[in-house]
Amino acid sequence: MAQVPQTFLDGVAVRTWCGLALRALGRAREEIDAINVYPVADGDTGTNLYLTVESAATAVEAVFAGYETRPAGPSLADAVRAMAHGALIGARGNSGTILAQLLRGMAQVLAADGAEPRCDGPALRLALRRAADSARQAVAHPVEGTVLTVASAAADAAERADGDCGTVARAAYEGARTALTATPAQLAVLARAGVVDAGGSGLVAVLGALVEACTGEPVREPAPGAGEAVPEAAAQPPEAGPDAGACAEAAGDGGPAYEVIYLLEADDTAVDRLRARLDALGDSLVVVGGDGLWNVHVHVDDAGAAVEAGVEAGRPYRIRITHFGLGDVHTGGPRPPRERTQRAVVAVVPGQGLAELYTEAGATTVLARPGEPPASGELLAAVRRAHAREVVLLPNDADLRDTAAAAAEQARAEGVRVALIPTRSAVQGIAALAVSEPGRRFDEDVVQMTSAAGATRYAEVVVAERQSWTMAGICQAGDVLGLIDGDVAVIGADVTATAETVLDRMLQAGGELVTLVVGDEAPETAAARLEARVRESYLAVDTVVYRGGRQGALLLIGVE
């Protein structure tokens, strides 16, 4: 009789798990959104979980890309650390933030010093237990009948399983499914709506993907969702305990009006104080992370105070503030249907300064932090947020073209007419936006915007991070690089002098308008010196200067 091979989890299996989980959530996203009634019925739990896992998968792919020349590939520890970090920086919403902590808890076990190069059944049991416990500790007021309950049930079932990774993963999945069907009996708002918990449903999908990654066998039963009847036993929920009552009040009328999420660089002591302050300001508080980097999620009436609390604790960034608006469970009353606008522009921008400029011009923006490019799901969410029949998408980065194309394809499948203009820099996007006229026919407007972007040469001035070969020679770490149309053209020691050389080379081919976007780390005198250079040497050329904020590049330059 043939012996069944033992299954295990290694770096490749983690990569597979991320991909399978992303596809599973992609299939279930709309159904999970539809059953999202707690803690806020804003219909985005499925989308938030998808975006969180997409960020995790992107981080894992980046690690594998770094090992392309090494046949061994990344270790289990490398892969799970990347997965957890990617989820942390990309976490969206309440459930996404909790999922990020679940993955971080697993990584704490699987990537610990002395951990084995691949995970067996007992190690996976420990990882699932750590995940469930750490997620519960991250929530200020845990409520039963939520994703926390489902995670704990998965860990309990895993601890009872005896076998390899496949056996443990399948036990966790089955335990989570059983707990999910019981969530309406634990939370009155679910029973009234006749649904199971949305976040828990997403976790079941993620655990199903883990089973397939470990065994190669897909789970065949779908996670319970909107299409399944709530078990009869769940129709009459028991009396809620004090935690459930306190938190369920947030889902009733008169609750907080804003969701505030940000990443925070701070030490543990400062975060402890932050938790206490935010807990007093609002509800649905979840703070996850560690080692100096945290993801903060809270529902409040005073969004400014929540951000100020983060400033006092450390350095908050990637700040997202969402107004729940009329018609959700915080404010009561039916939600009036919002009429779609005819046309919108969605643009990726590298800094807060340009985000404000694009927004003033009427665009919907997606902020791309240095080293943190947006995923396709984030671009798709922006297209949906624009709520238009026709959308012009400006990726403003050559490396984002495929990501933007994937978002555009999905938006078209949802009935939105999308045109992708392959802008490779934010200055090309500025040129395109400047000639946009919503009153024109869509095709004509796209042609004019594409023509304006294509007629704009672009450059950037950056500091080299390491020694490397370039088209201008060998650069050393700390050298100032001037890139023209994506290629290194100048290597220098001074930011302003390098920028002047770049500008001269660009204007040798002619030009009528120079656009300068100045980053926070550029010398204060750089813009004035470059303006003077253009004024003195190129009489027929105008110059416009914008402040880009923390945009990665010291300077962005456009010549039209």
What does this entry look like structurally?
With 560 residues, the protein is an alpha/beta fold. The protein is 47% helix and 18% strand. The protein contains 19 helices and 16 strands. The strands form 4 sheets. Strands 13-12-9-16-14-15 form a 6-stranded mixed sheet, with helices on both faces. The protein has a 4-stranded antiparallel sheet with strand order 2-3-1-4, sandwiched between helices. Strand 10 and strand 11 form a beta hairpin. Helix 2 crosses helix 3 and helix 2 runs parallel beside helix 4.
List keywords for this structure.
about 550 residues; alpha/beta; six-stranded mixed sheet; 16 strands; about 45% helix; globular
Topology:
Blueprint: H1 11-34, H2 45-65, H3 76-90, H4 93-110, H5 121-138, H6 147-160, H7 165-181, H8 188-193, H9 198-215, H10 242-248, E1 258-265, H11 268-281, E2 282-290, E3 293-300, H12 303-313, E4 315-323, E5 341-349, H13 352-360, E6 364-367, H14 376-386, E7 388-394, H15 401-413, E8 417-420, H16 426-434, H17 442-454, E9 457-463, E10 468-470, E11 473-475, E12 480-484, E13 487-492, H18 495-507, E14 513-519, H19 526-537, E15 542-549, E16 555-559
Parallel strand pairs: 5-6, 5-7, 7-8, 14-15
Antiparallel strand pairs: 1-3, 1-4, 2-3, 9-12, 9-16, 10-11, 12-13, 14-16
Helix pairs in contact: 1-2, 1-3, 1-9, 2-3, 2-4, 2-14, 3-4, 4-5, 5-6, 5-7, 6-7, 6-9, 7-9, 11-12, 14-15, 16-17, 18-19
